[in-house]
Design goal:
Elements lengths: L2 H10 L3 E4 L2 E4 L4 E4 L2 E3 L3 H12 L4 E3 H8 L8 H15 L10 E4 L3 E4 L4 E3 L36 H26 L1
Antiparallel strand pairs: 1-2, 1-8, 2-3, 3-4, 5-7, 6-7
Helix pairs in contact: 2-4
């Protein structure tokens, strides 16, 4: 399996994938846990897609290498694959002792052990386009995001406290100004 085959598989499969509480929008390359977008970038996302597309089958390390890196790439495939699999497991909230989605097949490779559903239309409980939702990031991947822009959302209690502090400081400054300069 090479990167061209991976792209072909992605374009010939359904846009949406659901497994357990997770949803994948392959067109947007976005993964959600319920309605919270997860930050799966680069190789971590690509490994998830390869495993989902071959669910129940063993995907060898060699197949992952061929799907994820060009043949002439000067990369430590074993280390990078292990790192990406660990990040994927972290995002999917599983441990090596209790694999629920990503199963290691000793000396062979990995297998997606869950059941994934594929659809051309969003699943009924699939989240909408939530750009301001909190993003879970298990750590930086080997590839940097294309856009440098990031959005952050303050919890409502902190935002309210900051507004209140600003109002108090403004009132104090106004009172001081009036009493000393008016």
């Amino acid at each position: 399996m090479n990167s061209c085959l991976l792209q072909h598989l992605q374009t010939t499969t359904a846009r949406y994938v659901r497994f357990g509480p997770f949803y994948v929008d392959q067109q947007r390359k976005q993964v959600f846990l319920d309605s919270t977008p997860l930050c799966l970038r680069g190789k971590v996302y690509q490994i998830l897609i390869v495993l989902l597309l071959k669910q129940g089958e063993v995907v060898t390390r060699e197949e992952l290498r061929q799907a994820l890196w060009p043949a002439d790439a000067d990369v430590d495939y074993v280390s990078n694959t292990n790192t990406a699999i660990n990040k994927l497991r972290q995002v999917l909230n599983q441990s090596e002792n209790k694999p629920s989605y990503i199963e290691t097949i000793p000396r062979r490779g990995y297998r997606f052990a869950g059941t994934a559903e594929f659809s051309e239309i969003p699943f009924p409980t699939m989240p909408g386009n939530s750009a301001t939702a909190e993003t879970i990031d298990p750590g930086r991947d080997q590839e940097a995001p294309k856009s440098g822009a990031r959005s952050y959302q303050l919890p409502p209690m902190i935002a309210g406290a900051l507004i209140l502090v600003g109002m108090l400081l403004g009132a104090t400054a106004a009172t001081y100004w009036i009493t000393h300069f008016a």
